[in-house]
Specification:
This protein has 395 residues and is mainly α. Among the domains are: 99 residues, no CATH class; 28 residues, no CATH class. The chain is built from 21 helices and three strands. It has a three-stranded antiparallel β-sheet. The chain is elongated and about 95 Å long. The N terminus is likely disordered.
């Protein structure tokens, strides 16, 4: 039965605490907590009581249902207005996960969210509402999930600052929603924002890290507006793919795309049937790797060397010359580059290329270009000095 989260009575159920402390069904490691709960409550030490409850909820022996649910129903809800409301929301979120029935978990969190919906606790309200939206999504209520996302997004926009746990909840649920809708670019954005709010090594299990890295990789490859994987490639979570063994080829594929390495892409295509959705989108992936190759080709050139012959583009992208114009026009329409096409001279004159997050190899290439530029500047300086020595006479 879902708890009555709206109830708030400032006294404890002494029978519950005494029974739990004495019961043979209560794990021995948890029994001291019930005595401590009573002592802290009687002394009205709400902060210390909250910390002790959080410690209890994190204890491995409290994870077996319905231990946490009973603690909330018979104890926490009776003084819920006395403690920090964001911490109350966090406690409620942990308890909700103990319900085996998602519908009961949803009912629990919706009641809690209603209780938290006041001007002074909007951050806690967002936290509870987004976690309720998680269960709505599990129950197939996509519309209800989207409504919660929109409502919470508007509330968060009004905050100057908010606890990272609230943002983490928001971005995680938004990511799950877009994953269910197969909106790759939106999933990619929200999932990376979620990872920015958590400690990947502490907050995610090994399995969760691999799954998150896998999903991010798929969304990066299939997102029709994602043409720079640098942020993902530099993120620690990507190492999970290599360690898993199962998905190491997927990591290699990402690096091939980011470098626009068509040869490497072709070498990895035999792995695509392992991910049916990638195999089904092979034509799109081929076009995307050609666009990535074009971007890389432009990016590695000096600003004064970006008038590129169609034949050169064809050679670098491994496309027939008569398909180059369409490829460049596609890149222009996606705002990956700016420039003009000269059909008469068969030239693409590129004036700008989309800024990128660089991987280590690209940073090294940029350093080489910078060193070459510095060398040229020194050579010009030396030449001018030799031609007009009178300008360089020391005082």
């Amino acid at each position: 039965m879902a708890s009555s989260t709206g109830m708030d009575i400032d006294h404890v159920d002494e029978h519950y605490l005494e029974h739990a402390a004495a019961s043979s069904s209560t794990p021995t490691s948890l029994k001291p907590y019930y005595t401590k709960f009573r002592q802290l409550h009687d002394r009205k030490l709400w902060y210390q009581l909250t910390l002790t409850i959080e410690e209890f909820l994190n204890h491995p022996d409290s994870q077996a249902p319905p231990i946490q649910i009973e603690l909330y129903d018979n104890f926490v809800r009776r003084f819920s207005s006395k403690i920090n409301q964001l911490q109350l929301a966090a406690i409620g979120v942990k308890v909700a996960r103990q319900y085996p029935d998602p519908a009961k978990a949803l009912d629990f969190l919706e009641q809690l969210a209603t209780k938290l919906d006041s001007p002074d606790s909007q951050d806690a309200y967002v936290y509870a509402l987004m976690e309720a939206a998680h269960f709505k999504l599990l129950l197939g209520d996509a519309d209800g999930t989207k409504m919660a996302m929109d409502k919470c997004g508007n509330i968060l926009d009004g905050f100057d600052a908010v606890e990272t746990a609230v943002h983490a909840s928001f971005y995680r649920v938004c990511g799950d929603f877009y994953k269910a809708k197969a909106e790759y670019a939106n999933y990619y954005k929200n999932s990376l924002l979620y990872l920015a709010c958590v400690n990947v090594d502490v907050d995610l299990t090994d399995e969760a890290r691999v799954q998150r890295a896998h999903d991010l990789s798929i969304s990066a490859l299939l997102g029709d507006t994602i043409y720079n994987f640098g942020e993902l490639l530099l993120h620690p979570i990507l190492t999970s793919l290599g360690k898993s063994g199962q998905y190491s080829w997927l990591s290699d594929l990402l690096f091939a795309f980011n470098a626009g390495d068509i040869g490497r892409f072709e070498a990895l295509t035999p792995h695509l049937p392992k991910e049916a959705i990638l195999a089904e989108n092979l034509p799109f992936l081929r076009q995307k790797i050609c666009l990535m190759s074009l971007i890389e080709s432009v990016f590695k050139r000096a600003a004064d060397d970006r008038s590129i012959a169609f034949s050169t583009i064809a050679a670098e992208t491994k496309l027939p010359v008569d398909e180059v114009e369409h490829l460049v026009m596609k890149a222009l329409s996606l705002k990956l580059i700016r420039g003009t096409l000269d059909q008469v001279d068969q030239l693409a004159r590129i004036t700008w290329v989309q800024p990128r997050v660089l991987d280590a190899r690209q940073i090294q290439a940029l350093q080489t270009r910078l060193n070459n530029w510095c060398t040229k500047v020194e050579e010009v300086s030396e030449y001018v000095k030799n031609q007009t020595p009178e300008l360089f006479i020391s005082a």
